[in-house]
Amino acid sequence: MNHIKVLFFATLRDKTGTKMIEIGLQPHATVQDLKDAIIERFPGIEETIAHCLASVNHEYSADEAEIPVAAEVAFFPPVSGGSVSGNQ
Question: Which strands sit side by side in the sheet containing 59-61, from one edge to the other?
C-alpha cells in the first residue's frame, strides 16, 4: 500500500473540513485514482475536485501522472479574481 499525504486548500479545505488527510492507494496509482478515492471519502466533492490543480511533491501534475511512494499531493481549486476597473 502506498500511503499518500493529501493537502487541501481554499474551498476544498472548507468542503472536506480538514486541511490534510493520509490515504492509502495501490502502487502505481495516478492522480485521478487519488481523486476518485477522495470523492469516495468525501461525497459531494466531485465537481470541485474535478477542476483542481494537483501538485505531486511540489510539481504540478496531470491526472494521468503516477504518484510516487510516500508522496505529498496538494489540491488547489480554481481561483477567480476581482474585477478590473476601467478607470486606471
Answer: 20-25, 2-8, 72-76, 53-56, 59-61
Instruction: Report how far apart, in Å, the C-alpha atoms of 58 and of each of 15, 30, 73, 84 are.
Output: 23, 16, 8, 31
DSSP state of 21: E
Helix (H, G, I), strand (E, B) or coil at 76: strand
Cβ atoms of 34 and 25 within 8 Å: the answer is yes
Q: Is the model's pLDDT at 84 over the cut of 80?
A: no
Closest CA to 70 of 16, 7, 15, 2: 2
- Averaged pLDDT, 13-35: 97
Distance CA(61)–CA(57), nearest Å, equals 9
In this predicted structure, what is the pLDDT of residue 22?
Answer: 98
CA-wise closest residue to 31 among 58, 1, 68: 68
